[in-house]
Amino acid sequence: MALPRVRVVTLNAALGPLDYRVPQGVVAQPGDILTVPLGPRQLIGVAWEPERLPTEEVGDNRLRPFLAKEDVSPIAEPLRRLAEWTADYYLSPLASVLRMILPGAAFASPRQLTEYRPTGSLPDRMTPQRRQAMEKIEGRQGSVRELARLADVSDGVIRGLVNHGALEAVAVEADAPFSLPDPDHAPPTLSAEQGAAADRLRSALGKGFDPILLDGVTGSGKTEVYFEAIAEALRQDRQVLVLLPEIALTEPFLSRFEKRFGCAPVSWHSDLRASERRRAWRAIADGSAKVVVGARSSLFLPYRDLGLIIVDEAHEASFKQEEGVQYHARDVAVMRGHFEKFPVILASATPAIETRHMVEIGRYDEVCLRERHAGAQLPDIEAVDLTHDPPARGNWLAPRLVRELEANLEAGEQSLLFLNRRGFAPLTLCRHCGHRFNCPNCTAWMVEHRLMHRLACHHCGHVMPPPRLCPECEEEDSLVACGPGVERIADEVQQLFPEARTAIVTSDTVWSPARAAEFVRAMEASEIDIVVGTQLVTKGYHFPNLTLVGVVDADLGLQGGDLRAAERTFQQISQVAGRAGRGERPGRVLVQTHDPDAPVIAALVSGDGPAFFEAETEARRSAAMPPFGRLAAIIVSAEDQTDAERTAAAIGHARPKIDGVAIYGPAPAPLAMLRGRHRQRLLVHAERKLDVQAVIREWLSGVDWPAKVRVAVDVDPYSFV
Ligand SMILES: Nc1ncnc2c1ncn2[C@@H]1O[C@H](COP(=O)(O)OP(=O)(O)OP(=O)(O)O)[C@@H](O)[C@H]1O
Ligand SMILES: [Zn+2]
């Protein structure tokens, strides 16, 4: 008789499925999480249905027993199916998907652990490193390793601070339970329109798969309305996941949630400490974490009884993961609802063409909110033609916008200037010889950050101090900043209105939920008059006293010929415009452009979004672009240029000749070098009905390449660099 055996997928993407013997007296079912031996190592893996993962059978005599069954809930069948679907669709190893279900922190730490926090006293001897550490740590708490990483110092510096009494140990109970949100804590009084929408969402709960687009203008109360769906899920004792596009949005969400439900939800994002991660993961898996709010990585966690997913700001491109498994969290959220049979709500004021199309063909239902809450009006949008009304020399704000800022300051109202560029200037060059500062690792300019006093590459993070001499011609003080970033706009505002209180809001200044909370507090306390920010401030926030929005450069996003450039510009400007006039006073929006006749600008000004989307949709349809056709990018990269070129050429050479598929390239990717790797790209354009993954899988399986070359496939790409 054959020995009882189990097939295991480990979390190591380089390994295929492995078979183990089931030790006597133990039962192993698909989904169980096991510790298995591999040579001298121990690995975590998941038991899987053997018939779904065919592999070469190992004889009974070579079968080793697995070591242990982990004391956590097994991965349920629908989640196993979702993992397989994700791996297949995005052409990724199943192991890489499992790593998102079972992140390291889930098992690592013990029940009780030690963390450290500032005591308030400083050591007698203050080294620059110690000072840096204490500044960066601020009021935070974490393990030695976490604080060291946070402060960008060695573990030794942190230990030194502990020994000198500047940091003290705290014992943390790793698995303390979370509070339960109360669906009846403080329900709002909904308007008739909101009430009807909430009814529709509530009625979807507990009845199976039901994807719904919640399409409501900015400030219409989408959040209030989907909170009612959350309340219903809580009454049915199901778990809920709310996906947000950025962790900076988490904090305002938490406090709003707490007002409605009496306690904060469980959050999951990259800023969590290991202890918080373990605690959240365990509560998610045992079902005691009722409502989870998180970034896209929270989508794959093993919820015990998920009954609803809400994707807020569902049009946001940041839901697309650009590394590892290159999945789109919005699309996988819908698939999760399909496998686990629950409703999925996509909330947006500017839904993506892909999502609208799903509504059009009847796959998704649509619920609309057409009015702002409490009679607030949508702001007027006006174009400022920079050709006719140019800014003063060396400045970036047109006289018309400056006058409006002044009027707003006098009226004691807040203003927001939007420019999607971090730093002071995107390009630095030598006025004497024309030398440009490029990143040594990337095809990109070094961006000047005056606040941090350095030049930085936004692709790889390479930094250098701004040199006094030009490295090319050695001319002194010859470097000039070209073009504006938010810091430069903030400088201009300071010069125009020295008395105004300004704040710069970018990922450099608001990098954590705590920072975001501080920004919200300062805005609400009217400690800020003018905010200068990147896309980080365009969504989610609700500041009633914010009445003027200026878009510094509406043409910026239209450069580069990206498939979604116009759509994204429309979404971004509508979103940022939507921050204005949310309270009692009406808002106004000035959009600076060199091309007021461009269809996207004209549509924003006339308010005719539907016509713009229709024209964009038709353009996509006639070019058979997504969602009417399919795209996939194959990126070949290597440290050595010739290696990358050779493999790309071999892949190009083996290209399949199939009706309905066009293959472009290989050619150097627009970002020809990234993090020190040379990149070649092929683009696959296929008819909608074609199984493009099967074509690519078959194609690449016939080509070999050296281990130092990386070949990544990006299915449904959002980035074309
Ligand atoms: N029925 C209601 N009762 C009380 N306050 C409400 C109600 N509906 C909306 N609000 C308030 O109006 C403001 C805007 O609502 P909310 O943020 O939910 O809109 P939104 O559609 O999600 O906005 P956006 O898409 O612009 O982020 C919030 O401060 C919210 O608390
Ligand atoms: Zn770089």
Automatic annotation (TrEMBL):
Per its Swiss-Prot or TrEMBL entry, what cofactor is needed? Answer: Zn(2+)
Molecular function in Gene Ontology? 3'-5' DNA helicase activity; ATP binding; DNA binding; hydrolase activity; zinc ion binding
Catalyzed chemical reaction(s) = Couples ATP hydrolysis with the unwinding of duplex DNA by translocating in the 3'-5' direction; ATP + H2O = ADP + phosphate + H(+)
Which EC number applies?
A: 5.6.2.4
* Annotated Zn(2+) 2 binding sites: 439, 442, 457, 460
| Biological function | Initiates the restart of stalled replication forks, which reloads the replicative helicase on sites other than the origin of replication. Recognizes and binds to abandoned replication forks and remodels them to uncover a helicase loading site. Promotes assembly of the primosome at these replication forks.
Query: What is the name listed in the Swiss-Prot or TrEMBL entry for this protein?
Result: Replication restart protein PriA
